[in-house]
Amino acid sequence: MPYIIICLVFYLFVLLLDMIPAFKEKSIRLKIIYTVVFAATLSVNVLYGLGFHIPSPAPPIVHLIQSIFS
Amino acid sequence: MKEIINRKQAVSVLAMFLMGTNTVLGAGSNSRDTWLSILLGALFFAPVALVYMRITNLYPGKNLYDIILIVFGKITGKIMVAIFTLYAIHVGALVLREFTEFMHIAAMSGTPQVVFLILMLSLSAWMVKSGVEILGRFSKFILPIILAEIAITFIIALKDMDFSNLMPVGHSGFGSIASEAYSLFILPFSEAVIFLTLYRSVKTDQKRNSILVYGTGIAVVLMMIVIIRNIAVLGPENLKLLYFPTYTTVSVLSLGDFFTRMEILVAAVYLLCGLVKASVFLFAVSFGMSKLFNVENYKSMAFPAGLIMLTLASIIYSSISESVEFLEIFRYYATPFQVILPVIIWLGAEIKNFLNKINPKTPLDLSDL
Question: Which residues cross the membrane (chain A) (predicted)?
């Protein structure tokens, strides 16, 4: 729970101090990218904070390298 | 406004970037011959550094992503830019996680690690939004402080050093030394490929080749001083048991009865180098994302890139032992990005340059890509 609260506070700061000023630019592309990244990373962080297992890219890379070089 | 850093600032950034984790983690396996491996690793890096220098000299005023797009065109170029960007995101997240692990384990174990991640990331994103000039000025100001810290702790450690811990030289055997040298060649020396993404900000009228030489040279010297001090004070057998050997080494040093527990200096240096290293990776990711998505101002990508790195840093591994497992295979994982792809880029750039000399065309407008 503390993880989620800390993340939400941080994301609120990012929203107010960076995302909203960035949206004042006319670039639609920037708005789409920022919104998608913001929503996706927030979702992942909330799920992680709730205890869901989020797969990391590290173990598959380790297994791949070990299978090639072992 | 074009952002410009001079040669000294670039050297400072590169030196702090390469020093990065080694200020606390030590180097390699922290064995008695690691100092030899550092020298050999730097020697392995020399031809790769020549490749990096040649790539930037063929296209002065351009960074690595610009060069990739010029050489390989829109589609293949963007695929390669995406590969480098993903690599920078991954390694940048590892760097962030390493530094925050240190803070969590060594200093504030009761504070959630995400707090350190957020603070470190916020500072790095602020650095990116401020521009490369701020990074250059910051690094140039901080590097002498780091040099002074390492020198002072080395001098204080002299009375506790037992140089017989470094003997016999070459005891580990050439195979082991060479293997460790290759690991050091990959991490940290060849990570300088990420620094090439900042090269368009380096003044083109100065001796740009010397940046890699002096930056790497400073990092090599400082790493050797640190590892020799650590081995001479604690001994190689004790160092291998520690996650943060430099931190522990400095913690046992004292000057008289009142000047003790100097490991706070190590922690401060580690954080400063860590901030520069994380900022350079964040710059690389921001540049890469702006190229991929055709966003004009890379600074707009600072926080989106940072959010991705923050999320990846949180989930990438669940314990420090998993990070050690990954570090053991890192030299194989990173070789394509740090050696093979730059060589391909260099060959492509030489061929394109040769063809342009035979059949001159109008300069490629990067805004078309």
Answer: 32-50
Question: Any chain A CB within 8 A of the CB of B123?
Answer: no
Cα–Cα distance list, B353 to B37, B70, B80, B348, B357 (Å): 37, 11, 19, 8, 6
What CA–CA distance (Å, rounded) separates B362 from B354?
Answer: 15
pLDDT digit string, tens, across residues B217-239: 999 999 999 999 988 998 888 87
ipTM for this prediction: 0.95
**pLDDT tens per residue across span B77-102:** 999 999 999 999 999 999 999 888 88
Chain A 23-62, residues with CB within 8 Å of chain B CB atoms: 25, 27, 29-30, 33-34, 37-38, 41-42, 44-45, 48, 54-59, 61-62
User: Which pTM does this prediction carry?
Assistant: 0.93
Distances (CA, A) of B7 to B12, B20, B217, B236: 9, 20, 14, 37
pLDDT above 80: residue B362: no
**Could you tell me if A1 lies within 8 Å of chain B, comparing CB atoms?**
no
Residue A14 to chain B, least CA–CA distance (Å): 8
Q: Which CATH class is domain B7-368?
A: mainly alpha
